[in-house]
Amino acid sequence: xxxxxxxxxxxVAAASFSLLLVVYLYRAISASTVGMPGGVGVVGRLSxxxxxxxxxxxxxxxxxxxxxxxxxxxAHNSLIKEQRAELQRTKEQLAQLEEQIRxxxxxxxxxxxxxxxxxxKNRKRILITGGAGFVxxxxxxxxxxxxxxxxxVDNFFTGRKRNVAHWLGHENFELIHHDIVNPLFxxxxxxxxxxxxxxxxxxxxxxxxTIKTNTMGTINxxxxxxxxxxxxxxxxxxxxxxxxxxxxxxxxxxxxxxxxGPRACYDEGKRVSETLSYAYAKQEKVQVRVAxxxxxxxxxxxMNDGRVVSNFILxxxxxxxxxxxGNGRQTRSFQYVSDLVDGMIALMASNYTQPVNLGNxxxxxxxxxxxxxxxxxxxPSPIKQTKxxxxxxxxxxxDITRARHYLxxxxxxxxxxxxxxxxxxxxxxxxxxxxxxxxxxKYFDSPDLQRSRP
Length: 454
Ligand SMILES: NC(=O)c1ccc[n+]([C@@H]2O[C@H](COP(=O)([O-])OP(=O)(O)OC[C@H]3O[C@@H](n4cnc5c(N)ncnc54)[C@H](O)[C@@H]3O)[C@@H](O)[C@H]2O)c1
What we know:
Elements: H1 2-33, H2 38-53, H3 62-107, E1 125-129, H4 134-145, E2 149-154, E3 173-177, E4 190-193, H5 200-205, H6 207-228, E5 231-237, H7 264-284, E6 288-293, E7 296-297, H8 308-317, E8 322-325, E9 331-333, E10 335-336, H9 337-349, E11 356-358, E12 363-365, H10 366-377, E13 383-386, H11 401-407, H12 415-438, H13 447-452
Helix pairs in contact: 1-2, 2-3, 4-9, 6-7, 8-10, 10-12
């Protein structure tokens, strides 16, 4: 009997000891895992409230376990939130770094495009005013590749350094930030005078400055040409014909321009520019060439210049409505920029001194043009007519008999091929501006700036 009681007592003592050991071990493990990352930390957090609320009570009540579980769940969620925010921040930083690498790659090219070697007899020093603009930058490319020394003068009103960045640092290239309204002293053999805003929103933005650029700027250019005996090519425009009553427009047509309309600052500015050129030619024996340029399009044209090509392409790429001003029956003819550049270089090299139309005589109604762009971009954009624009010319088509005869020049690039190039340029530009947009509100501190902060 005695041995049986002893045996039971031994069993009870052993059981109590085991229970105490289990409780001790559980608490020891819980205490040591508080604050550890991941799931282990949760165990630690679970034990906290139980210990606080259930001091001395074991096992914990169901209520306490519920609360602890909820706390653990909340802690887990906030941890995930923090990690997601961290991931997002890292992604944004990565995108910014990628953009910085891209812009570094474009702004500091390791290799320049190949240029021909010309000996000193054939190599010319050529000044291009407005050379950082759309047409000017393509002209720079061609003349550089031919092996000439090219100096660009630009006030960057509508031009961009990026357009000529691939030549920066080249021994044959120089970029000068200068407003052509002010005189310029420089030694050169030829001048292509392109400095002037070309699109209506740009030239109407500051009409007085547009007139000054086309009058005082042209006087400065012609004065320089006179001093150094350089040949000058003036970039005039089909706008000198105004809203033409003759169709297609030959160079002998004097034009139909409203001298006080919204476009007059440009149209009349260019007409004075031509007048000045022939006055300097007659009086000062300056060799002048006058190119009357018709609508030109291509890569590097301004995204928001408000003209029909950029408007339609952007609207189509953004799946917006393609807006046709007026009834869409007004016509335009569009030349690709490389054709224009070929024509300008041929005109400069020629002995022909009268104005020459440079444009593509293939004529399209604006309505047809909208259809072509819609089809090439391939989006769902509807085409809608809207209010006509004041003084918008009804018909525009160059007569290029002179250019064909004297320059042996005519446009080569078909509309569809040129438009595909231009659409692809605009698509890339849109993607680029979207990338910038995404990161536009975020800054990277330089290490120095960070150190200077408290
Ligand atoms: N693109 C066309 O369809 C078209 C048609 C007819 C005539 N043109 C003529 O061709 C020339 C080039 O046109 P674009 O389309 O390349 O235009 P653009 O606006 O891209 O280029 C003009 C350049 O001239 C610069 N500029 C403007 N004012 C200046 C000033 N006061 N001093 C120095 N630089 C100045 C601008 O910053 C810009 O780089 C212009 O003279 C324009 O009138 C162009």
